[in-house]
Amino acid sequence: MKNRIDIIWVRHGATPGNLKRRYIGSTDEPILPGEEERLAGIREKMLQESPFPCEHLDAVWSSPLIRCRQTAAILFPGQDILIDDDLRECDFGIFENRNFQELDGDADYQRWVDSGCTLPIPGGESMGIQTKRSCEALDRIIADCIVQGKNTIALAVHGGTIMSIFSVMADQKKEYYEWHVGNGEGYYTWIDGSRFAEGEKVLHVDGRF
Fold it and tell me: CB within 8 A of 19, min separation 6: which ones?
């Protein structure tokens, strides 16, 4: 396929807030000490099991937040890391850096949960807004790949970024939260660049790691 673009999607390594099950969106915290070794092991597994060659990719994109940039540098060493601000996690507004236990009894939080987490978060974003900007970021990335002839790429992003894009574009129809992956986990996918550019925006899922 002339314009096939293979894409690795990976969620960043674990952070202190992840361990405490906090809503970590705009908080710019680094990965935990020791995550480097675990992520290096994931890289070795990726090199052995990826459905396409990934030792050296044509490009690597990352969210601007440090946890994603650190993850990209460990999993894809020696590669330049391109930043797209719209790959960042959801802005959790007044829920930021708090967990469900700390938010218990908060009326705004209960309304948000009761909506299936789709309502706009006070001071933050809605699921729909995050999904829109995440998909627009992927549109720009794929356009760049087509123009520059990039056929194998990776994106080091957030769980919310992956769930947003996959819930809209994946060839396997699943709900938003069904695309959840753990820290350092992700998906192997590919797209037909020509059809994507023509509006047939389908992300073919090859597997999960």
Answer: 32
CA 144, CA 71: separation in Å to the nearest integer?
22
Length of the chain: 209
Residue 108 in any domain: the answer is no
pTM to 2 decimals? 0.96
3-state class (DSSP) for residue 99 = coil
| 166 within a domain of the structure (yes/no) | yes
Q: Domain total for the chain?
A: 1
Given phi > 0 = left and psi -120 to 50 = alpha, else beta, which region is 61?
beta
Give every CB contact of residue 37 below 8 A, 6+ residues apart in sequence. none
Give the ranges where the chain is alpha helix by DSSP (H).
16-19, 35-49, 66-75, 107-114, 127-148, 159-169, 193-197
CATH number at residue 10: 3.40.50.1240
Query: Could you report the per-residue pLDDT of 119-136, keeping only the tens digit for each?
Result: 999 999 999 999 999 999
Tell me the C-alpha distance between 86 and 202, whole Å. Answer: 20
pLDDT tens string 170-191: 999 999 999 999 999 999 999 9
Q: Quick check: 67 and 13 in contact, CB under 8 A?
A: yes
Domain housing 41? 4-92+125-208
